[in-house]
Amino acid sequence: MLFLALLSIYNPAHWLSFPSLDSIRCISFSNRDLYLAVPDGVCIIERRQLRLTRTLTAADGLQGRIRLCAWNPLRSSLFIATDGHLYEYLPGPDAIQELFPPFTQVKSIGITPAAVFFDTDKGLFQKHRVAPLFSESREPAAADWFGERDSSRPQDYIFLTPYFVTDDQLLTHRIIRVRADTRARRLFAAAENYGLLVYNTSSGFTEAHVRFGPSGRVGRILEHDGRLWFFGDNRAASLDSAGNWNYFYSGSGSFPAAGISLLLPEVIELNRTRTIRAALPADSGALLLATDRGLYRLAADRSLTPLLDIERPVFTLCRFADSILAGTDEGLYLVTPDSLIRLYDPSARFDFGVYDIARTRSGSTFFATLGGIVIRDSVGTWDRLLPPGVDLSRPVQALAAAGDHLFIGTPGGLSIREPGTGGFTVIDRSRGLPAAEITSLFAGPEYLWIASAGMVTRFRYRAALNLPGRN
């Protein structure tokens, strides 16, 4: 019961979401923080160190895609407009309240020293200084506008010419939005499919690049050479132990990224032609690579050899004793040094595909299959598991194990299997999960990393579950 109680209340301190910065829709700031509105949330970035400290998402009650945000110095609050909803965020108590104005869609928000204005689908409105009341209004004499009527344009700053930034792979990204802090002599510029740049308006030089989160959809989270890698279609992002994010695009016409030497050119080329879905260290310094068209072995001498050459994806790899298990949509294979052996389970669920594999500390192995999970414990006993939220007509896509805890991605959210009782707790948006669709899971010593469409979320599971020590 304690396990259930610990997860029954959403604690923002246990969660940090990194949404994609490919499309920054609005930039605003206070004296202390930067606020970036992206489709899946509002990123709060501490200005001194340019560090992401909080992301407001659907788990905080925001409904609909984020359209824009605007800091209101009159009340030290942040207005957030989504598709059909308007909210006010108060940083002091870390609270969000929904407002119920006489309009549906907010096109722009105008800030003046004395009032806040909203350009909407029903016309122009002014908000009462304190109360959540709105009245029709005339055009203000002067306002700092956010949204469609944005007061700042990239063309207003000649030092931004030619109005794009070039990344490490010589790909260009158009600067689409800016916001200036005249007192601090800083210009914040959003670049398409890139992130945020900070310029010094006196010198015109770049002072910082703010980049985090995935670029596009993440299909698999891997750990390699002390980094976490987030692989998607033709794109990947890495996160090192110091919190630095790096990116590369493996599409046609791109160049290898500087600083990505940890990923060999052979791996980059393989991901270009066959999307990498999983990786696992093998014998003699080799690396096994699962792709959407089979299994490959990258030897220490950088030679690449196909082990399972099929027109089907290999979804997952797992070490089992001295061998490797490979899950595909046509079954499970045992990869030995000189052969591949098809494996079967007593209930014949493997015949419908094995989509992920996780092993717990006690030696039990869990196989994600169509409509449920197959278990093989440490003494060879087989069983089936049907976690809450699983769709019987769809495969379970994501598993991860930490100690003897099992994490399962389902259409209903994140299910956690408690080792003592075998019971389940489901974490959904009301308990902190920002998105329902989970594409991949990775459990580290302290955090559970959760990939969803356009976002990666870090869940401090050891603190949330009150687990002692390390795994």
Automatic annotation (TrEMBL):
One of its GO terms (cellular component) is membrane. One of its GO terms (molecular function) is serine-type endopeptidase activity. InterPro entries: Pept_S26A_signal_pept_1_CS, Quino_amine_DH_bsu, WD40/YVTN_repeat-like_dom_sf. It comes from the Bacteria. This is WD40 repeat domain-containing protein. The lineage of its organism: Bacteria, Bacteria division WOR-3.
